Amino acid sequence: MHRYFHPDTPPYAAILKEIALALGDRGMAVTVLTCQPSYSRHVVGRAAGSEQLAPNVRVRRWSVLPDRSTTALKIVNMIIFILHVVAALLRMKRLDVIMAATNPPVLIASTASLLAKIKRARFVYHLQDIHPEVSVATTGKASIADRVANLVDTWTVRLADRVVVLSDDMAKVVEERGRRDAIMVINNFDPWQLGSQLLPEPKRVDGTIRFVYAGNLGRFQNLETLARAILELRGDDRFAFDFIGDGAMRPWLQRFVTENRLWSVGIHGYVEPRRLAGMMRERFDVGVLSLHPGVIRCAYPSKIMSYLRNGLPVLAVVESDSELIDTLLHRKAGWTADPLRPDAIARAMIEIAESDQILVQMRDNARQMYLDEFDQSHQLRRWGNLFEDLLVENIR
Question: Which of 60, 120, 122, 299 has the greatest number of CB atoms lying within 10 Å of its CB?
Answer without folding.
Answer: 299
